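Okay, is this right?
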Amino acid sequence: MKKFIFIIMTLLVLTAAFTAISADELYSFELSEAAHTEDRTDNCYIDLSIPQIKGLADKSVEEALNAYFMSWREKIVEEYENDIEMMQAEYSDEDMPHFGHEYRWEKVAESDDYFVFKTWLYYAAGSSMTVNEYWTLDKHSGNLLTLSDVADKVRLEEIRSMIKTAMDKENETKQVFWTDEDIYYTAFSFIEEFQHWYINEKGNLVITFDKYEIAPGAYGESRFEITGDKAVLMKDDKYSFEVYTADTIEANENNWYMNIKIPAVSGMADLGEQEKMNQHFIEKADEIQKEYETAVATAEKSTTEGDGPHFGYEYFHVLLADTQDYLSFKTVAFFAAGSSMTSNEFWTLDKNTGEPVKWEDVVSQDKMQEIHDQILAEMTAANEAGEGLYYTDKESFDFAFINVPAYHHWYLNGDGNLVICFDKYEIAVGAQGTPEFVIKL
């Protein structure tokens, strides 16, 4: 990927030509969507919004830049299809882990002199990874700027030292950044090649580092504004969360196994609430471990060695969405013994408040019946079309529906829409898996 980006950027530099324009006249740029690719299944999704930019002075540069954006569509679709093929070979349909691929764009800043936008690739599978690229257009020349247009090599050496000083200062109060020279110098060496810089509305150079480049994932992207002779860490107003595996408990003997990966959350505003959530995950893991140990003890008493039943217990988390405003994930408790049982809990964290999103924040009481009727109508239609095996009798569905907020059976997806979820066997036969319904309010 890095080699591919380098070739494209080299092409842009080599083909760039400065076009004369009246000193009083400025170029105007237009950023819009060129193509949209989307596909969603129960366990995986791809959602690609491909941008195009118009208004550059040199149309060959404009075409090369737009072709570069479009090339990501083919590349990501191919990777997505390969991932599905690999997952299908390893997992059954009902056990396939969740993962997703996204490509997005947005305008970052606009001043009298510059127009700046960014593109980013996002991948989620348990944890997430975001790769950003920034693009700065000069309104006076109509050209895409390169870093050498803004700062020569000597100046870049000074900037590298400035940022290192800013990182060291930040670490004095709380250990945030990895300041090992090999890690930092490697990350800084990619600044120009991977478009990790831009000019902000004040006309200052901003240097950026992707998630995991110079700090743990919980700190997200790091950006440093170069102001005079110093670098200033630009802290986002929004919270940055990380969901990770805090501990692993495994057992694999005879005909049974246990694989528990205890989730943990960091980055919340209320550390007491964060501890409460993490303690909940620990208690769930303890419950599953005790169930496993009881099942093993029973099996060992009632069977001879190597002749016992096959069964397994699992507990893990899956990242569902990581947007500008929300991070959503679920925890999965899975049991298999001949047939299988899956029980999920879903969580949505608000990046604006640093708190978990509450059911009552999303759904008002007067909307409950509307949501109830929408889901029931979708289930009935699926049954009538021969595509569903849902329990649509009033008693069964009403009981399952009333438990949705109590058992965390909902979340906000990548589009900010409410999704209502049900465990296996709750509202349908086991072959229906764990049904989810996107709510239209």
